[in-house]
Amino acid sequence: MSVLAANPHDPVVVRAGDAEHLPEIGHYLLADASASNGALSAHRIQLARGADGAVPHRHNHSSELFFIIDGALEVLVGSEIITAGSGDFLVVPPCCDHAFRADLNSTADALIVITPGVERFDYLRQVARIRRGEAGRDSLLTEQDRYDTHFVTSPAW
């Protein structure tokens, strides 16, 4: 659960036990754009060995930052696949196709930040519903502009 900042200069604090957990996709929702007055959106992922994180997509208006807390994350960046390990930091700029998953031989624990922020929690909740079989993937196609998440195909992925 995110706490709405009263003004742009207030800190945003989300206690670990207060973060909404979406176990179907391994996400912990930390701060949506409304909580940070548009500065960023942040969530943490914890993925099992080889588990999918996100299909190929791009953000037209935001950069996506990955900080690997533990394990290894494979990240598609353009047409290259980069394996990022514990302590590594990676920034994917706007309009760059990307995707991510846990390495086949490792779990992955990572902090993901999108800046400037986009209201993404409802997008992630919908992805969880899709994984549970409660909605189809097509349900996100009409929402690509709203979430600045535009699906792409990638021969490298």
TrEMBL record:
InterPro entries associated with the record? Cupin_2 (IPR013096), QDO-like (IPR053146), RmlC-like_jellyroll (IPR014710), RmlC_Cupin_sf (IPR011051)
Ranges where the Cupin type-2 domain occurs:
45-113
Pfam families in the cross-refs:
Cupin_2
Kindly provide the name given to this protein in its UniProt entry: Cupin domain-containing protein
Q: Output the SUPFAM superfamilies linked to this UniProt entry.
A: RmlC-like cupins (SSF51182)
> Which species does the entry assign this protein to?
Microtetraspora fusca
Task: Give the superkingdom in one word.
Answer: Bacteria
